[in-house]
Amino acid sequence: MHRNSQLHTFLLEKAKFLTEEWYESLDKVNSKGVYASTNPDVIATLKKQNFDFHLQLCKIFIEEEEKFFKDFEAWILSIAQDDQHLKTPIHHILKEFFRVRGQYLNFIDEFVNLHQVEKEQQLLYNQMITKAFDNVVYKFVEENQKYAEERLQAQQDMIKELSSPVIALDNNRALLPLVGDIDTSRARFILENTLEQCGEKGINHLFIDLSGVVIIDTLVADQIFNLLKALNLIGVKTTLSGIRPEIAQTTVQLGISFQNVSIKPTLAGALTLPPITTTRR
């Protein structure tokens, strides 16, 4: 244990040098993302992150393994969720983890020669460092992927919301212009979002324009019909416009009837309808 404490102190004293050596030897030409940045603030943050890594990693030789890895999670999460690292290809980040591991193995060699440590003990040190890096890298990749997926999902949700806007007009009327491909997931979102927006905005007449939609499948057509029924239940009258022949054919094949739905060939024609004067149910 005494020898382990010596190694901990030895590496801790090298922490600043490890960071500077690592950054100076960084391939800034072929690297991407955070490693290629010339912004002084980004560089300073990157060096601090690397330095904090060393302060934590050195503890592998003086702490219980379970506590060591638990305490390391805060650093791992901060890097996995760091904007600059999220903009950096994962293979570049892994490359730098492995380069830093090489630094540690070299300094362990130096320590072993300086203190005449037995080869068996050196092997144990190397195994401890390798295991530490393996676990940190695995946890980092796991958290990085998880956070990236959460951000992607949030972006997709925002895109869905922006691509399915309920635009308030006059006299408690609103327009829902649908553009692009509509899959089952988006159709479900449109149904939920439209009902919520109509309720919040006090809409009593919604114009749904489909002129920007080229193709929908039977499941999506069914969802649109469900939307019309749900809007009717909350007292919102609907008018469809811009239905292409392909979409009309799909609804016929599905057996969906728009008998009680107001339909106009164009949005301009739909908007000329007089406002509804009756109160909402």
UniProtKB/TrEMBL annotation:
Domain STAS residues, every copy: 163-274
Alphabetized InterPro entries for the sequence: Bact_StressResp_Reg, STAS_dom, STAS_dom_sf
Record CDD domains: STAS_RsbR_RsbS_like
Keywords: Phosphoprotein
Keyword Phosphoprotein tagged: yes
PROSITE patterns per record: STAS (PS50801)
Protein name: STAS domain-containing protein
Gene3D superfamilies named among the record's database cross-references: STAS domain (3.30.750.24)
Species assigned in the record: Sutcliffiella horikoshii
Lineage of producing organism: Bacteria, Bacillati, Bacillota, Bacilli, Bacillales
Pfam family, one: STAS
